[in-house]
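step 3/5: co-fold with flavin-adenine dinucleotide
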Amino acid sequence: MIRRTWQAAMIGLARSATAKRFMQSARATSFLRDKYVAGADISAGSARAVALIKGHGIRSSLFFMGEYVDDPALVAETVGHKLTAAEALAAADLDIHVSVDPTQIGQVVTPDEVEGHARTIAGRIGALAGNRQGVHCLMLDMEDASVTDVTIALHDTLQDAGLPVALTLQAYRRRTWDDMVRQVERGSRIRLVKGAFAAGPDLAFQTQREIKANSRRLIDLMLSSEARERGFYPIIATHDTALHEHAIAAARHNGWEPGTYEFEMLLGVREDVARDLAARGERVRLYVPFGRDWWPHAVRRIGENPRNAVLLARSLVT
Ligand code: FAD
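step 4/5: write C-alpha cells
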C-alpha cells in the first residue's frame, strides 16, 4: 500500500511540467541525472554502451529520453535522435537496439503518424543490421493502460512487415497472460517488466505479491519448451534477483542455452547484479537513457522503491 501510494505520487511528479522545469534546471538535482542517465547526447550514450560491453560484456539498449510528447516538432526531433542512436550503435559495431515510447513518436499529438515513424526507425535498424551478428531491434516500451492496445497492434504490424521489432509487456496488468500467449505463438521478442504505471483493480494486480506471482507464471510461459520451439526470444527485465534465479532454473529445465534469452536492467539500478549475471555467462543488457529531458525517467526510478525517498529528499535540500 505504501509502495503503491509512493509510486502514484512519483508518477504524478514525472508528468508535472512545473516539477520538470524546476528539477531539470536545479543544479542540486544533477546527481539524480548522473545516477540514471548516460549523458546529454548520443556521444555520451554510445560511449557508455561501448564501456559496458568492453568492461563487463554487457549489451545496451539506447533510449533518447522524452515521454508524452505533445509538440509535433519535438516528435520529429525525437525520431531523428532515434535514428542517430541506431547509426551510432552500428558505427561502434554493437547491437543496434533502440528503445522507443509510442508517446514520444506521436501517439499523443499525431497518432496517425506513429506507424510511419516506427517503420522509419525499424527500417533503418534492419538496413544497418544487414548480416551482422547480434540482437538488433526497435524495442517498443509499454506505457499506461490507455495505449496498450495501440502499442501491441503497432508491434504486430511491424513484425508482420518483417521489420526488426520487440515489445514490452507488464506483469502488473491482468490481460498480460493472454497477450503473452499470443506473442509466444507469434515467436516474438518480448521484454517482461513488472510495470511502472498505476491502474485500478479491474485492470491490474495491486499488490507486489500478486505482481511477483504473475511474473513467475509469465516467466514459466516465456521459458517453456513450447516457446523455445516457436523461436520466441524472452527478455526478463527486472532487478529482482529471486526472479532472475527463477528464470535461470526454468531455462535450464527446458533446454534454453545462455544467449538464447536475456536479462535486462536499468542503468544506475543494481548494476552489481547485472555484472554478476554477465560473469555467470548470462546475456545481459542495460537500458541506457541519454538526452536532456531526464526528470521523468529519474523520478520514475525513485518511485520504484519508497526507500529512494532519501535520494529525492537529498536533491531537494542540497
Ligand atoms: P522491484 O521489486 O521493484 O525491485 C527488485 C529489487 O531491485 C528490489 O530490491 C529493489 O529495491 C531494487 N530496485 C528496483 N528499482 C530500484 C531503483 N530504482 N532504485 C534502487 N533499487 C531498485 N516499466 C513499464 O511500465 N514499461 C516499460 O516499458 C518498462 N521498461 C523497462 C525496461 C527495463 C530494461 C527495465 C529493467 C524496467 C522497465 N520498466 C518498464 C520498469 C519496470 O516496470 C519496474 O518499474 C522496475 O523495473 C522495477 O521493478 P523490478 O522488477 O526491478 O522489481
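step 5/5: annotate
The chain has one domain: 38-293.
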